[in-house]
Amino acid sequence: MLSIQGVHKRFGEHPVLRGIDLDVARHEVVALIGASGSGKSTLLKTVNLLEQIDDGRIVLAGDDISDPRVNVDAVRARIGVVFQHYNLFPHMHVLGNVTLAARQVFRTPRAQAERTGLALLERIGLADKAYEYPDRLSGGQQQRVAIARALATDPELLLLDEITSALDPQLVGEVLDLVRELKAGGSTIVMATHEMSFARRVADRVVYLKDGVIIESGTPEQIFERPQRAETREFLRRLR
Ligand code: ADP
Ligand code: MG
What we know:
By secondary structure, the protein is of the alpha/beta class.
């Protein structure tokens, strides 16, 4: 589904991604772990074309999306993104937020977009909040709405960037449960996370990033129980 090949990214003189190679299969859930500043968000942003790469190639379902001639909006329409801070539009009710992309990007008629949106809200257990405004929802509910919004256009790939890190601990579970359901439903997901327990339980593969380099990647069992590299062991030890 996604193939990241030899990707380099610099900010000025500062190399942030230094030759990233990563392939993600359809229906696979990949967790990116690594210290703050290791390049996780930048890597997700290069896939969503929010950051331009300096070298390498990114291929989405066979299409080279790093080609400068690519239609950026068309690529972004194929990828659902959720960031740490649930950026819901405060002046729009929940259903309006969820249907916005379908209506504006895909020109889906309102009635149809709303039917799809309500079905999604039903699925995430927030159908009764469809006409509430975001500030009337808890952080966990807002983040679930942000996920529903990302799903509304039926994306081929979901990018989740630390989606629980701004939440109170008691709200984390409901968001993680939703991601687990998406996985069960066959979504292809790349997520940056600092929740190791979550990476362990949900990811098919865990990728440890350090200073813009993939140090090690493997099943959660391999990475968390039998890390091969000293850097990985050191990173995990510091978390304990
Ligand atoms: P992570 O998500 O793993 O914490 P980031 O991808 O956010 O890491 O950041 C990696 C490095 O790139 C950091 O040193 C950060 O300061 C730097 N960086 C990120 N975005 C920018 C930017 N727009 N301009 C300059 N430096 C940036
Ligand atoms: Mg980040």
